[in-house]
Amino acid sequence: MGRVRCHRARHGAISDTCSAPQPGDTGDAVSLDPVSEDQRNGGPGPIEHYALLSDLRTAALVGRDGSVDWLCLPRFDSPSCFTRLLGEDNHGHWRIAPTGPVRRVERRYRDNSLVLETDFHTDTGVVRLIDSMPPHEKNHNDEPCVVRTVEGISGEVEIGIRWVVRFAYGHSMPWVRTIREREPIPDEYLLALAGPHTVVLRGDVLPVRKEDERAHEITTTVSGGQRYSWVLQWSSDPDDLPAPMDPVQEVRDNEDFWRDWSRRINYTGPHREPVYRSLATLKALTYAPTGGIIAAPTTSLPEALDGNRNWDYRYCWLRDATLVLLALDNFGCSAEAASWRRWLLRAVAGDPADLQIMYGVGGERHLLEWEPDWLPGYQDVSPVRIGNAAYDQLQLDVFGEVMDALHLARERGVAETPDSWALQRGMLKHLETIWQRPDKGLWEVRGPDRHFTHSRVMVWVAFDRAVRAVEEDDLPGPVDRWREIRDSVREEVLREGFNTELGAFTQYYGGTTLDAATLLIPALGFLPGEDERVRGTVRAVERELRHGVLVDRYSTEPGTNSVDGLTGREGSFLACSFWLVDALALCDRRDEAERMFGELLELRNDVGLFAEEYDPHAERFTGNFPQAFSHLALVNSAAMLYGGHTREESSRRDGGSRR
């Protein structure tokens, strides 16, 4: 039985009193206070109060109040039909919860699955809400659905079901009808239609129309041993609706899928549960038809609670390429790693001059950004953004990320193809003509272009991996020219990116501000961890950007010369915090690294998930959720500390190592 964690956050995130799991529980159970003030007022709760459901095509977020507040259909990047997360009740949600006071809430995933259990403890009894989305990994014709079941555990509890569907990000109110059919089998359901959008709701007790609110509601009493189920199904064709499903069997199949999948994970080091949960989260954020992994299933959850740092993260970033391959392949998820490589090659195919920093889950290139002005934003933090204008930014680091990822794939035994190598040579030829230009950098700033130190290091990575491809893999190419450029870039970075007065690498050439991305320098193999310039950079980051166990990616404090052109002080970037763990380990400060790693794990929410950032002042998550980058960094830190390969190592073909 897992241990119990007490995570104390503002806004009533989790109560100070934690209780042990109930008999029969299959995972960690953490006691939560009932409902936050935001939820009482009809809005979303704190980000850390949500749990993830996924069918490997799209995802839903379920609050600890029993409300599905976010669901896009049929893909991760499709318009949402439940949008309370970015607005209010009337923007769409589906809540199943006791009607009376809830004294305690306990949640957990069943084992390593994405079957979520939420126990509501009331004065009259206990009921359990079981939520899942049946995974669709192979059959491309499967249509997404959400299965919800309430079980009576003890006593007698009145529950309420409130179903408010609003398509097109809360803007389109559907026509909802109750349909009763007798042939070929008796079937009763709610059918919601609006333009191209169609969903069907079936259940043991269907909610009824509440005319004055354009919602559907019903109450029923659940006694110990009783069970009620509901299934929401999306349809691509209102004239060809999906057939009824057996909810009990669907949940059982869901558990079996995740149980079989988790058996492939071969991690045996410390902190096994967080590593497994992170790998399952990465799997859950994978779009199965293509292998693309999204950064997060949400848009516009604010990085700053008082600014405009709200972005759409429902896309695939090339910056994640190497980290994804490392995380998945290190611990037995080789099929997912191979799928990601195939997605990567398809997405970047074409003219190297057209290389983008991100793509849609199917490789789509145009991710036009717009603002749905009818949505107030998460807890009134605006704007809400759909799409991401950063897709056409120049970020030179992506060339290094792609070359590094494909080099890693070769080292893991994935045979290089002539087409793939020709594509890489084309990228390098283009990079030769543009590498000296300023860019927007890893963090996609919306301020002026600069010569960012991390971008230049990644240019070095691109040419270094090309040289190694020739030297280690006997691939054809102008190795002398590539080697000359690689060495020139290295000399430039050491000369222009290192500030001797600070004793550290700076965010950009000629600057005096720091950037946590420079913590990656030893992991990338640019300099060894024992180099005093690396050690000095680590000390400087600890001094200027570290807050306890957390690390900012760069300073956004009021009065600082922020380079990003945005407002508001953002939270600490969780991936950067794990990068410091890695850097400490590489600088022979392993005890500190292990201690910091364990402390970071305590910041996960009650079901083991991370957002993009953590605000140490407000003591809550900020940014999109759950965030792949955070979980990638967690998994790769575990590999760094407790077994697995790191990206700076040379060829490991056949288990060997050439340095």
From TrEMBL:
Domain GH15-like: 269-637
SUPFAM superfamilies: Six-hairpin glycosidases
Pfam families: Glyco_hydro_15, TREH_N
InterPro entries referenced in this protein's UniProt entry, alphabetically: 6-hairpin_glycosidase_sf, 6hp_glycosidase-like_sf, GH15-like, Trehalase-like_N
Residue ranges occupied by any Trehalase-like N-terminal domain in the UniProt entry: 45-172
Gene3D superfamilies named in the record: 1.50.10.10
Gene Ontology BP term (one): carbohydrate metabolic process
Region (Disordered): 12-46
Domain of life: Bacteria
A GO term for molecular function: hydrolase activity, hydrolyzing O-glycosyl compounds
Protein name, as recorded: Glucoamylase
Organism: Actinopolyspora mzabensis
